[in-house]
Amino acid sequence: MGLDVARVRGRYPALDEGFVHFDGAGGTQTAAPVIEAVADAMRGAIGNRSTAFAPGRRALELVAGARAAVADLLGADPSGVVLGPSATALTYTLARTLGATWRPGDEVVVSRLDHDANVRPWVQAAEAAGATVRWAEFDQATGELPAEQYGDLVTGRTRLVAVTAGSNAIGTAPDVAAIAKTAHAAGALVCVDGVHSVPHGPTDLASLGADVLVTSAYKWSGPHLAAMVADPARWAALRPAKLLPSADTVPDRFEYGTPSFPLLAGVTAAVDHLASLDPAATGGRRERVRAGLAAAASHEETVFARLLAGLTARPFVTVYGAPARRCPTVSFRVAGWTPAETAAALGEAGFCLSSGDYYAYEYFRAMGLRDSGGAVRASVYHYNTTDEVDRLLAELDRLAGGGERMVR
Ligand SMILES: Cc1ncc(COP(=O)(O)O)c(C=O)c1O
C-alpha cells in the first residue's frame, strides 16, 4: 500500500501554520508522536543514568530505546549506535580518534560532492597527522560522482574513504557500495554520510558497504540529535579521547557528557513514526520502517518528478546537475535574481526554501557559484504534495514575470 498523504500530513502539527516546506534537506518538521514522546519524557521523573532508582533506570531505558530504534532504521546492531548532538560533532569525534592513528604518508580520500561535515573533519585530522588528502571529483554537468575514479584515488596507503550517500545540494546518490568495495580491497575504512539519504528510502548498513554511517534525526521528523553507527567490534578497536570516570564501554565511550534523555525519547518515536508510514506493513519494526520509507520514497519520487520537470521546462530557471540516481533534492537559480533574493521572495509568499551553499562548500566552490550566492534548494519530503509543487512553480512564474524583490 502507498502513502496516505492526507493522513501523514495530519501527523505534522506544524503544517497547520500553512507554510510550504521544501526545506526538508535543512530539517524536516516534527511528527506529533515525537513531540508527545519528548513532552512525556520531560513530564515524568528522570534522573541521571542509574540502576539504583526508577527515574535513573528510565534514563538508561531511553538511551537503550534510541539505540534500538536507530539500529532498526539502519539495519545495525544497537550496541554499535553512538548517539550525539549532531552529525558534525560525531564526525569530528571519529576523525580525531582515527586521525590519532594516522602517520605521514597515510592517505585519506574525501569528495567535493559532500557536505563539509564529511570533508573538513577528515581534512583537518589528516593535516594534524601529516597525512595526504586526495579528492574525488564530481562531473560538473551531471552532478555524478563516478565510482571508477576511486580505483586511482585509493592506494595501499589509504586509511579512510569518506563519501556521501546523498548530496544535500543536488541530490546525487553515488554508488557507495562500489566505492566501498574499492576502499575495502585496499584495507581502507569507509565513512558514509547518510544525513541526506536516510530520510528518503530504506537504508541497510551492510549493503551500503559502510563501516560507519552517520545520520541526523532532525532530517527524518525527529529532534535535533544524531547517530553514528558501526559494528560494535569496530568501536571496540578505537580509543577516543574521554573523561577518566566516564563509561569505557562501547558505544558509550564515544559519547560526551549527559545526553538529552527527553530528545532520545523523540528519536525512538521518530523511527516508530517512519515505521507507521505504510499502514499495510507487517513484521517487526525493521521491516515496517523499511516498508514505510519505501512508501515515502515512492511518493517523494512522484512529487519530485513534477518539480524537476517544471523547473527544467522554465527557460528562466537553471537547474544544476542531472544525476541518474538521486534523492528528491534540486538546486537552481532564477535568471535575474540572486539565490538570496529568490529565497526571500518565496519566503514572503510562504514557501520555505534555502539559498546559499548549505555547507556543500566544495560543490559550490568547484562550480564557481559560491561567491555569487550559491543556489536555491528545493527538497521534497514525504509530507509534500504535487499541489505544493504547482503552487511553487506558479510563484516562480510570478517572480520571473517581474515579482518584487524582498532582500533580507
Ligand atoms: C548531507 C549532510 N551531512 C551532514 C550534515 C550536518 O548535519 P548536522 O547538522 O547534524 O551536523 C548535513 C546538514 O544539513 C547534511 O545535509
Name some characteristics of this structure:
408 residues; 7-stranded mixed beta sheet; 4-stranded antiparallel beta sheet; 13 strands; globular; binds pyridoxal-5'-phosphate
Gist of the model:
This protein is α/β, with parallel strands linked by helices. The chain has helices spanning 5-9, 32-43, 54-74, 87-99, 120-129, 150-153, 176-185, 205-208, 232-236, 261-274, 285-313, 339-348, 361-366, 386-400; strands at residues 20-21, 81-84, 107-111, 132-136, 158-164, 189-193, 212-216, 226-230, 317-320, 329-334, 351-352, 354-356, 375-379.
User: Uncertain runs with pLDDT below 50, 5 residues or more?
Assistant: none
Discrete helix count: 14
Small-molecule components bound:
pyridoxal-5'-phosphate
**Strand-and-helix sequence, N→C?**
HEHHEHEHEHEHEHEEHHHEEHEEHEH
* Helicity level: 25-40%
Please summarize the sheet with the most strands: 7 strands, mixed
Strand order of the largest sheet: 2-8-7-6-5-3-4
Mean pLDDT: 97
- Structure class: alpha/beta
Radius of gyration, Cα only, in angstroms? 21 Å
Form type? globular
The total beta strand count reads: 13
> Termini, distance in Å?
44 Å
Give the strand content. Answer: 5-15%
Model description:
The protein is an alpha/beta fold. It is built from 14 helices and 13 strands. The protein has a seven-stranded mixed beta sheet with strand order 2-8-7-6-5-3-4. It has a four-stranded antiparallel beta sheet with strand order 9-10-13-12, with helices on one face. The protein has a two-stranded parallel ribbon with strand order 1-11. Strand 9 and strand 10 form a beta hairpin. Helix 2 (32-43) packs antiparallel against helix 10 (261-274) and helix 10 (261-274) crosses helix 11. Bound molecules: pyridoxal-5'-phosphate.
